[in-house]
């Protein structure tokens, strides 16, 4: 019986995770890389085995194991280039070993990047990474590629976006990730012509998968700056009409299933509006974007200068401004006192400034306004046909869909309201409670 208990104890110890022993001072430092195998920027024509990252302590293997699918916690932190397969990543306490699934190929430049985010057993996360660049016979390159990745849907930089540089004509793929501002600079890379792609890595497998938002730029040999890569959702089918609604009495709002090419000029000939049931053509005056329609056809509301400002509103605004000023002054005094108490520092670090949308390219949109020369009839049905409208992927097509104008309820005017509440002279008046009953009977 004792050997059964001992066997169960050994099995439980084998399945348990390695943790730091209790006691001692708390560990608050992240793991530090103390070396790599091989060293970076060397030529190792006979290199075999594993590349290794060596740490000063035992690191965590993560909660998701590595199965060669790119979904393991350690697999997400390793970017091995050039290879099309997920590398073999192994955890060995204070070491992480890496090698390509197909083995090291001769006369090739390899780049192994360990991204930041590695943790130790006390979940102290590292904020820095390391890159190993070596060759298996080719000369050590010196070229670096830099640029910025932007999400065209929001016109803002895309943090931690995937950057994939495909070397031509060998189709060798070198990958890295952008920083928190969407910028990237990585190398050294071989000389030659590249096709550089930026993508939103939704599943975080360090691979450019289908249906992910991306775009590419061709970089000629001898150039090192890509500029801005504006990513968008690519599609090979034309945009369809997703919804149609009345915009106002003289226009129709058409919503498409894809974002449209913002540089395409729109003309009235691209829209056809027909009134049902006779399919009578309604003349189209213009086809414009929603923003342009508001600036051309919508009149700004005139301020009511005759109405004096409300004194209570003015007083409330003044009180709110005074309160905000007092809070701001108290906050500035508190920060100044805290800064003075810090040893060796007499001022606070500057606050990060939130970066707004970029204006290098026009923003994307998925709606157009069709302006007609005849007012839309309440309750009537129409057919709208759009042709030659390009999606952001520059795929044009023909789309058609019908809609019905909602039935407008009659508006109630003041005179109508007064008439409805006016007393009916023909209706008998109720008896006066002050009148005696005898007089009531008469």
Which regions contain 5 or more consecutive residues with pLDDT less than 50?
A: 13-17, 343-352
Rg measurement, Å: 35 Å
What structural category arises from helix and sheet content?
A: alpha+beta
The share of residues in helices is 10-25%
N-C termini distance = 114 Å
Number of strands: 24
Q: What order do the helices and strands follow?
A: HEEEHEEEEEEEEEEEEEEEEEEHHEEEHH
Short key terms for the protein model shown above:
single chain; 4-stranded antiparallel beta sheet; 24 strands; 32% strand; 442 residues; 6 helices; alpha+beta
Walkthrough of the structure:
This protein has helices at 2-15, 73-77, 290-297, 311-341, 414-421, 437-441, and strands at 33-37, 42-43, 51-55, 78-81, 88-92, 95-99, 109-114, 130-135, 143-151, 156-157, 162-168, 172-177, 183-189, 193-199, 214-219, 225-231, 241-248, 251-256, 271-275, 280-282, 284-289, 367-372, 381-390, 396-404. The protein is α+β, with helices and mostly antiparallel strands and 442 residues long. The protein has a 4-stranded antiparallel β-sheet, with no helix packed on it. The longest helix has 31 residues, at 311-341. Residues 13-17 and 343-352 have low confidence and may be disordered.
